[in-house]
TrEMBL record:
It comes from Streptomyces lasiicapitis. This is DUF2267 domain-containing protein. It comes from the Bacteria. InterPro entries: DUF2267 (IPR018727), DUF2267_sf (IPR038282). Pfam families: DUF2267.
């Protein structure tokens, strides 16, 4: 998984890719609950699963953009860098999750996450 993130994000070192993975998975761990959290952890490599499940889910769910802003604030990084990190890590997460689990995850999370995972944001017509 780390090599996929390094490749997708064009990180110069494994350490930079690892920092991105830890940051984004800890943030996702604060947002994801229930069976989707358990099922995703079971499909991720052990270290990644541990980073996801070590976090206590937050009582307030963040939209996709608020998620990026929260991560940026926690690390004093730019929004652009944090958005890049998030997309790079979520691409690897999506590959491990598979399309069915990813769809379930996206149904649980607020709007804005589909784009972060590289999917179109689908909304229901009124």
């Amino acid at each position: 998984m780390l090599e996929k993130v390094r490749y997708e994000g064009a990180y110069p070192t494994r350490e930079k890719a690892d920092e991105a993975v830890r940051l984004v998975l800890s943030g996702l761990g604060r947002q994801l609950t229930g069976d989707e959290r358990v099922d995703l952890a079971a499909r991720l490599p052990w270290e990644a699963a541990r980073g996801l499940t070590a976090q206590i889910p937050d009582t307030r769910q963040l939209t996709g953009w608020a998620f990026v802003k929260d991560l940026a604030a926690r690390t004093n990084a730019s929004l652009a860098t944090t958005r890049w990190d998030t997309g790079s890590v979520f691409a690897a997460v999506a590959a491990h999750a598979g399309p069915d689990l990813l769809t379930r995850i996206l149904h649980q999370l607020p709007t804005g996450y589909a784009l972060l995972f590289g999917r179109a944001e689908l909304t229901q017509a009124a």
